[in-house]
Write a structure and sequence with these properties.
Length: 187
């Protein structure tokens, strides 16, 4: 006797969607805060479930920070935080008060870019359920640790682009505060 085998959905086979987890998030009837990392950027978006398909309310990529004057890498911890902060400010303008995080199938590690982005959203004033253990220390968010690491690393190849463009890493903390204030002031 042969047993029937049901083929799993394509997104589940490719480990892109956990449908059980997604169903739980959708049942909450809250807008989902979706945070994703690509090879070059950080993407934060607010998505509302609709029966005909999800509706993206706000989409913020870390590349937008360049338009605000950000001189540093757009895929580091400070830029992840600023991306989350910008998304939160835009959400507040649209009168969105509460969201639920949806990190999908990504693995989470302590002090990750996902948590930095979530930190920015929390600091914008959006109501979001979270554990206080995930919050990053201030030195990590504002780039102080990056400056220290750049001085301590023997192989500074990852920081050559800054030297090439005459960007001083010592100014990162000050520049971070300028961009943060610009986001909070202008949205």
């Amino acid at each position: 006797m042969k047993k029937n085998y049901t083929v799993k959905l394509k997104r589940k086979r490719k480990l892109k969607t956990d449908y059980k987890k997604r169903l739980g998030l959708i049942k909450s009837q809250k807008i989902r805060l979706v945070i994703r990392k690509s090879s070059k950027t950080i993407i934060a978006q607010l998505i509302d479930y609709k029966t005909k398909g999800d509706k993206t309310i706000i989409l913020i990529k870390s590349t937008i920070l360049k338009k605000l004057g950000w001189r540093y890498n757009i895929k580091n911890t400070p830029s992840a935080y600023l991306t989350g902060l910008l998304l939160g400010v835009k959400a507040k303008e649209l009168k969105i008060g509460e969201v639920i995080p949806d990190i999908g199938m990504q693995r989470l590690t302590k002090n990750s870019l996902i948590y930095a982005t979530l930190n920015g959203v929390i600091d914008s004033g959006l109501k979001i359920p979270y554990n206080k253990k995930i919050l990053l220390p201030k030195e990590r968010i504002n780039g102080t640790d990056l400056t220290k690491n750049a001085k301590n690393i023997l192989n500074k190849n990852q920081f050559l682009l800054y030297k090439k463009n005459n960007i001083n890493l010592d100014d990162m903390e000050k520049h971070f505060e300028e961009i943060k204030n610009k986001i909070l002031k202008n949205g």
